[in-house]
Amino acid sequence: MFKRILIANRGEIAVRIIRAASEMDIETVAVFSDADRLALHTRLADYAYHIGLSPSQESYLVIDRILDAAQKSGAEAIHPGYGFLAENADFARAVADAGLTFIGPPPQAIEDMGLKTRAREIMIAAGVPVTPGTESAIDPGPEAAKIAEQVGYPVLIKAASGGGGKGMRVVETPDDLIKAMESASREAASAFNNPQIYIEKYLEGPRHIEVQLLADQYGHTIHLNERECSIQRRHQKVVEEAPSPVITPDLRAQIGAAAIKAARACGYYNAGTVEFLLDRNKNFYFIEMNTRLQVEHPVTEMTTGIDLVKEQFKIAAGEKLTIQQEDVTIHGHAIECRVYAEDPLNNFYPSTGMVKYLHPPAGPGIRNDSGIYEGGEISIYYDPLISKLVAWGRDRSEAIVRMRRALQEYHITGVRSNIPFCLLVVEHPKFIEGDFDTHFISDHFRIEDMAPGPVDKEKIAAIAAVLAYHAKPAASVSASQPQNDGVSPWLSSGRRLGLRTR
Ligand code: MV4
Predict the structure, then answer these.
(1) pLDDT of residue 494
(2) 380-402 mean pLDDT
(3) Catalytic residue among 292, 367, 402, 404
(4) Rounded to 5 degrees, what angle do the CA atoms 239, 240, 245 make?
(5) Is residue 363 exposed (0-12), middle (13-18) or buried (19+ Cβ within 10 Å)?
(6) Candidate from 115, 120, 155, 156 with most ligand 1 atoms within 8 A of CB, to mutate
(7) Residue whose CA is closest, atom 11 of ligand 1?
(8) Which DSSP string corresponds to 257-270?
(9) Measured distance CA(312)–CA(281) in Å, rounded
(10) Which residues have CB under 8 Å from 261's CB, separation 6+?
(11) What is the pLDDT of residues 214-231, one digit of tens each?
(12) Per-residue pLDDT for 118 more than 50?
């Protein structure tokens, strides 16, 4: 096993990786930017190297700086986390060229799965079900029109180098096809530096189901069941869970086998995830493969008892996977809420600043993966994730109840958070029933309309009276000069915010 590894990331995922390493007696090397001098990952690691300015293009995305820190620190391997350089095949190659081990899949698999048309070709050849559509990239023209006619409208135009929902176009009628393809191609050219596009049948109201995989370097590949990730807003996942409320044991075996086939088809090893869309008739279709540890991996860990990061270390170090498919079971149910520093009352605009007061939830069945602490800063430079709050229960109902209790217990001031919104989701009857798809949030919440509920003047008067009674003269609250800086702790609880849903 490695003696020392470098983590080419920051925030909660860097902390998560440090924790797994510590439990395996592996020393950790953090890298940090100017903004992260005092960050939790910088403080928790055994060693820390400064790699540049706050913008990630000047630090966490600079391959040479990271390799330099690895060489200086004596690290033998690099874990990329998620985001930043995690799915950059050139980075994975550069790590190997520097004589170090990349804790992740082979570069060729990263490259192949990064190009969605290439991924489609590989999956079609391997017999993995994909959404009906073109086998590879196609130009706007008569050939495209013929295929769109064959697969049937509505169709979806996707960018070959896209993914995550960027640059997609739904086309309802043949009249709109060519224009939509041309504009999608122009957008793809400027966004991804690749104008190639392809056509798929547009599935209406699919569920997003993904399968977690582990594979060693000797051809042993297993799946760790699915995660349900349909609850998302503008392609940003908000709530994830395992197992999916709609996957039966039989379907799980089928989709798991398809995911393993997908991994074998691209020569995969280490941890990875195969994304599928599930239509209303429960047919599943491959859409993408994520060649990294995912944000939502904890719900899989909580329900399988397998530490994915430790398995990543072992696989990268050349050990054989000791877990057999038959050993993988499902123990209870886990739900994750992504707690973001963003203001649901202001169109989910990121809310940055110092975390003045922090009371994270704890207690039975609760795990809270976070990279922040009281007194720390949430800066403009990075993803405004405060924490990933995970609730485990013996069944889905217990997990939901625990999540609700934990969200109510969670208090943070200094920045706004989406905690009240998460509460609305997990308390929604359709969520509780398990009756939802990828349109859940847009179907049931009107974000534009979210505003504080009616003000209870009597209650405010009562609170004011108590405050006035207890106030020392010197500290008395001036009526003409509000002391509230706009981030009152009393607004941080969902019930008090009175958010309304449709
Ligand atoms: C689709 C689709 C419907 N039909 N493909 C969005 C992100 C990208 N990974 C694939 N996406 C979709 N592809 C076909 N043929 C609907 C989506 C989609 C979606 C997928 C997963 C999770 C959330 C989503 C939200 C909107 C659209």
Answers:
(1) 46
(2) 98
(3) 292
(4) 115
(5) exposed
(6) 156
(7) 165
(8) HHHHHHHHHTT--E
(9) 35
(10) 126, 127, 128
(11) 999 999 999 999 999 999
(12) yes
